[in-house]
Amino acid sequence: MVGPSPRPSPPPANPDRADGSAPAAPRRTAAAPPPKQTRPAPHVEVPPAVSDAFPKDTGVCALGRRYGGWKPDSPEATICRDTYGR
Description:
By secondary structure, the protein is mostly helical. It has helices at residues 60-67, 75-84.
């Protein structure tokens, strides 16, 4: 036979309370929506063009000689000269 499910039995009495009744359910209140947070647009500043600050030949060998302090007969200078011909 198919029929409705039996109703659940009431919950047992609460032994912690003096009258044996269950505590009242907490009231539910509608939560206020969180305030909208807006972020300012990021400030991006493009640096001015650099003309003579860097060497015209920006190859690895030129950078190594100029900023790396390579001596003319150093292993680094020899590798660059043999590999890249510079």
